[in-house]
Design goal:
two-stranded antiparallel ribbon, ten-stranded mixed sheet, alpha/beta, about 20% strand
Length: about 450
C-alpha cells in the first residue's frame, strides 16, 4: 500500500519537536545527587514560588518497568505499495508509578537514563542520566486502593519518562500512572511518522485493557500481577502531549477527518468520526491534553471534536509553532462543545510546556536545549504550575472534591486574585473555562 508523504511543514515541525527522557535502566541510588541539575534538585521538586497544589501528596511512590507485546498489529513501517500489510507483535513498554510502601531508612530515588534526540547526518546523540523521587520495585500500598488509573502518551519523538516530574507527583497523590513508550516514536527508535499516527490509539487502548485485566493475573510470573486490586481502570484519565494529545483525544471520542488517511495509506478508517463502531472509551473519565497536534493539519473538524464529552484540561503556549496555538489548540478547545473544559495558557511559550527541564550537558547547543526548554520560561516553574492545575482538575473530576477555589478564576490574573498563587506570581498565565454548550465570543475564537 502507498503511504503518502506528510507535508513539509509537518515533517520539519516533528523533526525539531521535543527531546524527552527515555528509561533504559534504573536502580535506586540514595548516594547520588542528580546529574546535570542544580545542586540537590530533582525534576518536579517545588520551587519557592510553587503554587499550593504543586507539592507531592501523602503516598510513597514506587516505579516498575513492564514490557508487553500487542499481538497481530499492522507493521506500517515495512508496508509497501504492492504488498499486503505485514503483521507483528508490537512492543509496548510501560513505566508504572504507584502508591508504595517505603521501608524505613530507604530513599525514594531512582535513576533514569536518556539521550538527546537524534539528528539527521549527525553522530549518535549523547546519553545522560537524571534522578527521580521513586523507589524501584517497591511493594504497593493497598491501604487506600483501588486507585484511579492515569495513562500517559508522549510526543514524537519522546519517551515514557519525559514527564516524570508529573507522573511521580500524581502517584504520590493516589493514582496509578502508566506511561507508554510508543515504538517507532522514541529517541532510541525514532521511526517514520505514519507509525506514530497509526499506533497511538491502539497503544493507549491496549495499555488500558492490560491494566484493567491485571486483577485476573495472579501468577507471580505476570509483570502486571502487582497491580491486582491496586487499580480502578473504570476511572481512567488520559494525559497526552503533542502526538500523545492526538492519540488521547481520539480514544476519548474525537473522531478524525478523512484527511488523516492520507498520512497512513487509509489504515485509520475505524477511527474516523462517524465510522461504524467508533465511540469514546467508556473507561475514560477525564483528559489532560498538552499542546495536542492535529487541528492545524486538518485531522479534526467541529463534528469530530463534538464527540468529546468528558472533562478536558488543555495546556499550551500562545506561541506554539508546532501544534499551533491560534489555529490548532485554541480551536480544539473552542470546538469541543460537549465537554466541560479548561485551557491553561503560558504567555510567550512555544510547544515545550509539558516535558521535564532540559539537561545541562557540556557542549549542548541551542537547538538541543530548545528541544526541551522554553525560551521565555523556566521549565521548572512550568512543571510546578502543571502539577498544581492537573491536581486541581483531577481532584474535581476524578476524586469528586470541590476545587472551585483553584479552578474558578479570572481568565487573566490580577496582582493577587488567583487562589493558590502567591501575590504577583501568576503573571504570564491565563486560564479559560467553557462549560458544555459554551463557545468563545467571536473576538476570542481562535485568537489571542
Amino acid at each position: 500500500m502507498f503511504l503518502n508523504r506528510i507535508s513539509s511543514k509537518c515533517a520539519i515541525g516533528f523533526c525539531c519537536l521535543l527531546l524527552s527522557p527515555i528509561l533504559v535502566a534504573g536502580s535506586s541510588r540514595a548516594d547520588q545527587k542528580p546529574p546535570s541539575t542544580p545542586e540537590g534538585f530533582v525534576y518536579g521538586d517545588p520551587l519557592a514560588d510553587a503554587p499550593s497544589l504543586a507539592p507531592r501528596g501523602p503516598f510513597g511512590v514506587g516505579v516498575r518497568t513492564v514490557a508487553l507485546f500487542n499481538p497481530n498489529q499492522i507493521d506500517i513501517v515495512h508496508s509497501t505499495a504492492s504488498s499486503t500489510a505485514p503483521r507483528y507483535n508490537r512492543p509496548v513498554t510501560l513505566e508504572i508509578w504507584y502508591p508504595a510502601q517505603i521501608p524505613a531508612g530507604k530513599a525514594q530515588l531512582t535513576t533514569y537514563t536518556d539521550c538527546l534526540s537524534p539528528r539527521v547526518g549527525q553522530p549518535p546523540p549523547p546519553v545522560y542520566s537524571f534522578e527521580g523521587r521513586a523507589l524501584r520495585d517497591a511493594l504497593p500500598d493497598t491501604s487506600k486502593g483501588p486507585y484511579p488509573l492515569i495513562v500517559v502518551s508522549h510526543g514524537y519523538p519522546g519517551s515514557r519518562v519525559m514527564m516524570s516530574y508529573l507522573t511521580e507527583n500524581l502517584a504520590s497523590k493516589g493514582y496509578v500512572v502508566a506511561a507508554i513508550d510508543h515504538a517507532d516514536s522514541t529517541h532510541f527508535n525514532k521511526g517514520p511518522f505514519p507509525s506514530t499516527l497509526l499506533n497511538r490509539w491502539s497503544d493507549i487502548t491496549f495499555t488500558l485493557d492490560q491494566i484493567q485485566n491485571a486483577g485476573e493475573r495472579t501468577a507471580k510470573s505476570s509483570p502486571l500481577a502487582f497491580l491486582s486490586g491496586l487499580t480502578d481502570a473504570s476511572r481512567t484519565t488520559l494525559i497526552g502531549y503533542s502526538m500523545g494529545g492526538f492519540g488521547v483525544l481520539n480514544v476519548a471520542g474525537a473522531g478524525y477527518t478523512p484527511k488523516v488517511q492520507s498520512f497512513v495509506g487509509g489504515l485509520l478508517s475505524s477511527r474516523l468520526e462517524g465510522a461504524p463502531g467508533f465511540a469514546p472509551d467508556p473507561r475514560v473519565k477525564a483528559v489532560v491534553a498538552f499542546a495536542p497536534w492535529g487541528e492545524a493539519e486538518g485531522v479534526w473538524d467541529s463534528d469530530g471534536l463534538a464527540g468529546l464529552k468528558v472533562p478536558i484540561l488543555f495546556v499550551d503556549g500562545d506561541h506554539d509553532d508546532v501544534a499551533s496555538y491560534t489555529s490548532g489548540v485554541r480551536v480544539i478547545f473552542n470546538s469541543a462543545v460537549n465537554s466541560d473544559r479548561y485551557l491553561l495558557v503560558y504567555e510567550n511559550a512555544r510547544h515545550n510546556i509539558a516535558p521535564n527541564p532540559p539537561p545541562q550537558l557540556p557542549g549542548m547547543d541551542a537547538q538541543a536545549f530548545l528541544g526541551y526548554g522554553e525560551p521565555a520560561w523556566d521549565s521548572r516553574r512550568i512543571n510546578n504550575v502543571n502539577q498544581h492545575f492537573v491536581t486541581a482538575f483531577l481532584d474535581k473530576y476524578i476524586q469528586g472534591e470541590d476545587e472551585s477555589a483553584y479552578l474558578n478564576l479570572p481568565s487573566k490574573p490580577g496582582e493577587d486574585d488567583w487562589n493558590g498563587f502567591a501575590p504577583r506570581t501568576a503573571v504570564g498565565l491565563e486560564l479559560w473555562h467553557l462549560a458544555p454548550g459554551q463557545s468563545l465570543p467571536p473576538t476570542e475564537n481562535g485568537t489571542k
